[in-house]
Amino acid sequence: MELQNLDDVEKATRIGRRDVFRLGMALLFIVGILLFTNLHAADMPGGLMLVIAAMIGGYMALNIGANDVANNVGPAVGAKALTLAGAIGIAAVFEASGALIAGGDVVGTIKKNIIDPSAIGNSDQFIWLMTAALLAGAIWLNIATAVGAPVSTTHSIVGGVLGAGIAAGGWGIANWAQVGAIAASWVISPVLGGAIAAGFLYLIKRSINYQSDQVTAARRVVPVLISIMVWAFSTYLILKGVKHIWKASFYQAIIIGLILASIAFVFIRRAIGRVEIAARDAREGVNSLFTLPLICAAALLSFAHGANDVANAVGPLAAINDAVISGQISGKAGVPIWVMAVGAIGISLGLWLYGPKLIRTVGSEITELDKTRAFCIALAAAITVIIASQLGLPVSSTHITVGGVMGIGILRERIKVVYARAIEEIRLHHRGEDQAVVETFLTEFNDASFEEKRIMLKLLKKKVGPDFISKAERKNLRKVYRQELVKRAAVKKIIAAWLITVPVSGVLAAIFYFTLRGMMLP
Q1: What single DSSP character describes residue 365?
Q2: Each residue's pLDDT tens digit, 3-28
Q3: How far apart are CA 438 and CA 196, in angstroms?
Q4: Which end of the chain has fewer CB atoms < 10 Å from its terminal CB, N or C?
Q5: Which of 412, 336, 401 has the alpha carbon at shortest distance from 367?
Q6: Mind giving me the DSSP string for 78-138?
Q7: Beta-ladder partners of 106
Q8: Coil/strand/helix, residue 174
Q9: Cα separation of 519 and 517, whole Å?
Q10: Within 10 A of 482 (CB to CB), how many other CB atoms are there?
């Protein structure tokens, strides 16, 4: 008993040591920023605010890594295409690469144009506003990560800028039409992502899994699916990932993506033709074909995320740096390399220290994923962003991915229910017959392709007549085998966090703005 107690104490202290280590590494990063920016800005007018803002920017970057990056690698980890350590390594490298290579040297100082900068009195007020927004967004992300809710970092900083802006310039400072568009994205992003992910999964099931010869069907269909993925990610990266390096039009991106997809199709078809897939374990063999595409998707999504969303961490910091140096408020601000490094290193470090919790949430706590399902989610993320970019819709990558996971789970629920009802209906149609006959029919039905199942049910109903099953029995059929393959409690928690992200960030930012203003005014 005493040995067991000692073992329990040892386990508890080991967990405590890990928590202390994570906190210590995060603090070392913040202190490093403090020392560097103090040397860089010590003699500048307003240098103190720049030092404070840089530390908060580092804190924001840590929280983006802890929360937002999980969406890029979570499905691959949940599907066991990547280990947790491998996913963190790939995401860290590609997030940092995207930020430093394609993150851009200029960012908008007012995220999403949600407030009018001309309504802000002077550069000091602007600096306080952006500092308050950055701190509010970072704290809300920290809270969301702690409770295991993946939220949009863009919405967090938008809420912060909106709240601090209203505190600084009144309600008229806000661009309410843009705020409304952002609010609409709370619905658009997850619904669009979920619908596309579910659509691709249904296509795979109908064209491969529900065929009598899955191996032949896979050799025919999988190269097409992976080529679609090559097209989607090529187009996505050109439009979003490298837009700061090369500004391509939508149609240029589409055409280049189609060329790369065509080349990929030739090589993929040959490669899959050489892969051995055992007929007795065809489903798992087909599933394994999506392993490499999933790993590539995780890397490319991380690169594009680093190139785009690093601005959530460094955009306000770059704006403050520009205002301190120039003494003016501008719509665009240059991004010094040290500011970009703060974002890139902070995101990678936050992912390593605190990312596993949200990776597990996205990968396994909403619904069960395999490689095929995770492939559909990754593909849906890229295609949704492409569609949204063309339509001018402000969508969130977090909402798209989580919506994709939910869509996959809901489709699986629906398929299970429909199949269970079909089996129950077959048993009702065979009432009074020999059990061996019933089991033989069920075995043939189970082994049949999707189209063959439909024909068998149609012939069975025609044989026994439409009134063979009573109205009461039909009513009961609608209730049989309801299975919950999406964890409702997790979904409710995530949706609740989405709905309050902008308001909570806004209120926090307003409080911080008034606090800073009170501290800084003589």
Answers
A1: I
A2: 555 455 555 566 667 888 889 999 99
A3: 38
A4: C
A5: 412
A6: HTTSS-HHHHHHHHHHHHHHHHHHHS-SEEESSGGG-B-GGGS--HHHHHHHHHHHHHHHH
A7: 334
A8: strand
A9: 5
A10: 10
Q: Quick check: 351 and 66 in contact, CB under 8 A?
A: yes
3-class secondary structure, 496: helix
Cβ atoms 256, 248 nearer than 8 A = yes
| CA dihedral (391, 394, 400, 401) positive or negative | positive
Which single residue is written with the structure tokens 């409702």? 488
CA distance 487 to 405: 11
**pLDDT tens, residue by residue, 157-211:** 889 999 999 998 888 888 888 888 888 888 888 999 999 999 999 999 989 888 8
- Cα–Cα distances (Å) from 448 to 40, 206, 452, in that order, read 71, 12, 6
Helix, strand, coil distribution of the chain in percent, nearest 5:
80, 0, 20
Across 211-231, average pLDDT: 89
Q: What whole-number percentage of the chain has pLDDT above 70?
A: 86
CB 68 within 8 A of CB 357: no
Residues paired with residue 107 on neighbouring β-strands, in sequence order: 333
Overall residue count recorded for the chain in this entry: 522
